[in-house]
């Protein structure tokens, strides 16, 4: 039996062949990203009909390959605004009250909204493969709309994107113009979008629920397979540290990444450090019994001198990308007084590929992260040369011993050693 994906591929192949024949018959070059087909030929029905058919099939195939999560995360601003309305008015969850198919009239009754509003919102999302509509006018779920109905973290991410991130991203060129070359975390697109002199995290903390929403939304990325802690567990020589070895998880929140290391390597212990408002949310009652005596939570600001001397590993996972080079260097320098010869700084962050080095979807996602961090805090995702420069500027006694992205992982592993014999 031919699958939907195979039918789409066949349709696209036929359309593209027809387009190429059309171009050849008019002595035009083949389709190219370097040069457009002249407008008078684009508008010809023999070209535009086939082109539109190929684009439609291509977009549906992308949705099939991306799955529900990818479909929702990669929406246009207009589509995500309609998706926020779906979340705010419980449109997706009301569709699953007794079945996955219903009329617009019934859905409007459940949502307590005018039918015209429900129809506009849902139909705006159908081209993005969020909802579908039968020929008799009934509306039904797709995998993406069903995810909105059942997953509160997905809804938190949508809300965060619309209210915090997208306004900031749209304002980052204005911030560049207002504060040329600034690396300050409170001179950003977020600052302008939210009319604040505070940096993003401090500003959100002033409003009940906003910091909590941010942390909940970030769990969406943590649970993605490519962000699994197993890559950190499997790609560092933890067993070689020896019994009683100490890992300091800096800015570690609940220990989402360091605790799995303990569960695999029973000879180690972890000190999780974070700010008081974060550490106060966690205690050992939430830990598995077999690791409780090897985990501690401690208040620490990573811009201040590191209090734990001579740990085997100082782990910085998804910390430095929040900060510009100026502040990332300060975070690294705050570790130096605590380092011993055996100590390693283990950085678990994105390593941006050069153009063409990674699959296009992965590169697009990483560049989107980079733009988001720039708009949010003047942070950045970094290429290999950026990491090398950052470590060298922090202190010439720090040496990168390993820098790689394990196969299948979205996050790279950067191991930094300490050579105190070098002159500063």
Automatic annotation (TrEMBL):
Protein name: S-adenosyl-L-methionine-dependent methyltransferase
A Pfam family annotated for this UniProt entry: Methyltransf_2
Domain O-methyltransferase C-terminal: 245-394
GO BP annotation list: methylation
Keywords in alphabetical order: Methyltransferase, S-adenosyl-L-methionine, Transferase
A single GO molecular function term of this UniProt record: O-methyltransferase activity
Superkingdom assignment: Eukaryota
């Amino acid at each position: 039996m031919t699958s939907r994906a195979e039918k789409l591929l066949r349709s696209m192949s036929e359309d593209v062949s027809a387009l190429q024949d059309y171009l050849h018959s008019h002595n035009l070059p083949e389709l190219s990203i370097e040069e457009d087909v002249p407008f008078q030929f684009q508008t010809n029905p023999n070209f535009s009909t086939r082109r539109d058919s190929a684009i439609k099939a291509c977009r549906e195939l992308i949705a099939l390959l991306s799955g529900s999560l990818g479909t929702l995360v990669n929406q246009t601003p207009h589509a995500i605004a309609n998706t926020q309305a779906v979340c705010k008015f419980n449109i997706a969850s009301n569709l699953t009250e007794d079945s996955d198919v219903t009329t617009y009239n019934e859905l409007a009754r459940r949502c307590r909204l005018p039918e015209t509003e429900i129809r506009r919102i849902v139909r705006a999302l159908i081209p993005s493969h969020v909802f579908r509509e039968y020929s008799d006018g009934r509306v039904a779920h797709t995998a993406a709309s069903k995810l909105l109905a059942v997953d509160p973290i997905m809804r938190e991410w949508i809300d965060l994107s619309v209210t915090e991130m997208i306004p900031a991203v749209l304002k980052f060129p204005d911030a560049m113009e207002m504060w040329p070359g600034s690396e300050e975390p409170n001179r950003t697109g977020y600052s302008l979008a939210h009319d604040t002199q505070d940096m993003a995290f401090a500003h959100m903390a002033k409003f009940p629920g906003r910091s909590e929403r941010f942390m909940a939304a970030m769990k969406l990325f943590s649970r993605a397979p490519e962000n699994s802690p197993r890559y950190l567990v499997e790609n560092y020589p933890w067993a070689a540290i020896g019994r009683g070895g100490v890992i300091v998880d800096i800015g570690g929140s609940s220990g989402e990444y360091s605790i799995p290391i303990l569960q695999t390597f029973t000879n180690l212990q972890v000190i999780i450090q974070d700010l008081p408002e974060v550490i106060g949310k966690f205690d050992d009652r939430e830990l598995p019994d077999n690791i409780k005596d090897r985990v501690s939570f401690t208040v620490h600001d990573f811009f201040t001198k590191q209090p734990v001397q001579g740990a085997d590993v100082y782990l910085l996972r998804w910390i430095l990308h929040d900060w510009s080079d100026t502040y990332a260097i300060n975070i690294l320098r705050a570790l130096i007084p605590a380092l011993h010869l055996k100590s390693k700084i283990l950085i678990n962050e994105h390593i941006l590929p050069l153009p063409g080095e990674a699959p296009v979807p992965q590169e697009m996602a990483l560049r989107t992260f980079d733009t988001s961090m720039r708009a949010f805090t003047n942070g950045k995702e970094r290429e290999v040369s950026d990491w090398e420069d950052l470590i060298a500027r922090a202190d010439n006694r720090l040496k990168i011993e390993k820098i790689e992205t394990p196969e299948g992982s979205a996050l790279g592993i950067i191991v930094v050693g300490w050579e105190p014999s070098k002159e500063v």
